[in-house]
Each structure stands twice: as structure tokens, then as C-alpha cells.
Amino acid sequence: MAVSAAVTAGDTILDSQYNNLRIDALNETTGHDHDGTTDNGKKVSLTDLADLLIVDKSADETVNNSTTFQTDDHLVLAIGVSEIWLYEFEIIWESGGGSDLKVRVTVPSGATGRMSHIAEIVGGSTAVLRDQAFATGLNYEGQGVSSNFIVSKFAVYVVNSTNAGNVQLEWAQDSAVVADTKLFKGSRMTGRQIT
Predict the structure, then answer these.
(1) Backbone phi and psi for residue 68, each to the nearest 5 degrees, phi listed first
(2) pTM, rounded to two decimals
């Protein structure tokens, strides 16, 4: 069996060394186990990765003086009939003048599930779990400050029914203020199919 050669910092790895390393790691008949035992490899499961989808926001978006939900231009993923997905959102945002931010997701008709996040109670230091229906959404109040990036995370669990469609982020100012609320490039939506 081919064995990967030892490599040190600054070495160039040859394609043959890379391929040998792949054999060591991925071949369950002749590969090495994690403890270094030869010919006792463990199969690496990539099935979880096959069901993982990631969408990164490719441009900034701005809302000014509006509490009306708008469809995000980038953070959207398809969902099939009878599929179950867990979505995680990492949004980078800022707001000025006390406008703050509210978010929700749209789902195909008939889909069920919830969205939730852990947030600090305004003016306090206690963290609470906020769990809401899709249409109600979540709000981030008392956190928006212009010129300061805020990263907020929330999760959405969707059990789809008989209608294929999209799961898509919508967002707006939590309070209408003549000041910009922005969602920045680099915000992310990750989807992992459960069934």
C-alpha cells in the first residue's frame, strides 16, 4: 500500500503525495485508522455534507423609514415536497436612529415549523429564547446602532407539505425611522436537509 510521505512546513505537496493521503484517509480496506493502524481504515461519511447548502449574500441592501417586510435579494433556498430542513441564518446588519431590525421567513403554503433565536432582553442582561411562527418573525430591538456591525443568528425548522417552493428571508426596520437599516454582504443562510 502507498503511504503518505511526511511533510514539513514550506514543503510543496506533490500530486502523488496528495493522492496517497487520500488513500490513507478514504480507503476503508487499506487506509490507516486514526490511531495509525495500517490496513484498518474507517470509511468517511460525506452524506451529511451532500445535504448542506450555503448561500452568502453578495451585496448590501438598505431599508429607510419602512416597517414593511421586503424580500431579501439573496438569502433564499428551495425546498421540495415533504422535505424537512433546518436553516441557520447569520446576518450582519446595522441601523440608525433606533430603527432596529425585524426578520421573518416565507415558506411554501402548508409548511409548518418555527423560527427562534436567543436574545438579550432590552435594557437587561438576561438571555431569553424567542420562538415565533414564520409570519410573526423575530425582532432585534434596542440593538441597532449606526456604524457598528451587529451579527445576529437565528434558526428556522421547516416541515414542508405538498407544495415545493422557497424558504426566503424577509426583513424591515422594527420601527420606521428616517435612517438606514442595512443587511450586509457576507450574511449567510445555511440549509441542512433532515429528510
Answers:
(1) -80, 125
(2) 0.71
